[in-house]
Amino acid sequence: MVAAPSGTPVSIRRVLIVMPALNEQDSVSSVLAQVKQSLPGMDVLVVDDGSRDRTAELAREAGAKVARLPVNLGVGGAMRTGFRYAVAHGYHAVVQVDADGQHDPGEVGALLRLLDEGADIAIGSRFAGKGAYRAVGPRKYAMVVLSLVFSKLAGNKLSDVTSGFKAMGPRAIRLFAAYYPAEYLGDTVEALVVAIRAKLTIAETPVLMRRRAGGTPSHSPGKSAVYLGRAGLALLLALVRRRPSVDSSDAA
Predict the structure, then answer these.
(1) pTM for the whole thing?
(2) Domain span at residue 69?
(3) What is the count of structural domains for the chain?
(4) Does a structural domain hold residue 250?
(5) Residue 7 lies in a domain
(6) CATH of the domain at 226
(7) CA–CA separation, 45 vs 62, rounded Å?
(8) What's the Cα-to-Cα distance from 40 to each of 16, 63, 158, rounded to whole Å?
(9) Which residues pair with 168 in a beta bridge?
């Protein structure tokens, strides 16, 4: 395969949509149809994260590539599978899209434009002025604190560091294929610490968060009650751990 010239915009290079999915048979078909309509020509990899329903079967029927994990590894483990697939198959950008329908595929172009402008990671922010999405209770306070800390660490304003709607360019793909956290909140909080330590550039753009198309929300009221403590612990662990650099042999 001949690589695209370095100056070629990401939007016309090879882009892989990675969709982690756990028991999303009620929504995966419709979400894939929307992706196909909004993002023609882009490949989609559904990572079935140990589902016990027809998620994988329906994803294949909808035309997506499917990687099945024998056990549930969480979003981090599913995305790590996607990053390794992207490296093995020569993709220039990876876009994470949820299988529950909350992420609008029509907003992917805005994320890719940030990569074209030099960002290594583009975050779709729910709190940057688009839509009416609001966090409440402990989750709200955790997100405010995390945003302040990460804005300081990254050197630019980041309002939604726990967003799962992201695009990653070549340097981020290479780094995350070598290591991507799988612990609770690790795929967001710790992954960004890893990226900042590797001197990757992180930017964000406002996006609209939609209602779930089906399935069960991953955050119950009980989980929300302990979210603040877990978020703080995840950040502390991320800051004290040593992880591979994007330029090290470990990340090659």
Answers:
(1) 0.83
(2) 13-243
(3) 1
(4) no
(5) no
(6) 3.90.550.10
(7) 11
(8) 12, 12, 30
(9) 94, 121
